[in-house]
Write a structure and sequence with these properties.
alpha+beta; two-stranded antiparallel ribbon; 6 strands; 24% strand; globular
Length: 116
């Protein structure tokens, strides 16, 4: 499947996480098949870092965890939707690859929306 950002899956809890599992933001594979897709990837990363840096300056003691938090906040604000699964089904398959589509307009272009 065509994916723009590969993210490692964290702990699964379908009652807490909108997609059934949390994501671990400390190692990402960024990909863009064309210039529009790369622009979506960069917009997401830039938003996440800016959000994390604001948290860092407001809570200076938290250090690098703020950047990870920025990615988590940006992801939740991106209106993520599972492709063909419910959150419960995704949580029940912790070792499977799952595709998530961002439905936020700022992460969509004429070539479709950002996919993780």
């Amino acid at each position: 499947k065509n994916v723009d950002i590969f993210v490692q899956r964290g702990q699964c809890n379908s009652k807490k996480e909108p997609i059934g599992c949390g994501l671990i933001w400390n190692f990402l594979l960024l990909r863009g098949s064309n210039s529009e897709r790369r622009a979506l990837v960069l917009a997401f990363v830039e938003d996440a870092i800016k959000t994390g840096m604001v948290d860092f300056y407001l809570r200076w003691w938290a250090g690098h965890h703020c950047i990870f938090g920025g990615f988590a906040k940006s992801f939740k604000q991106s209106a993520p939707a599972l492709d063909g699964l419910t959150a419960q089904e995704n949580a029940a398959r912790p070792n499977s690859t799952t595709v998530i589509t961002s439905r936020a307009k700022k992460y969509c272009s004429s070539h479709g929306c950002l996919r993780l």
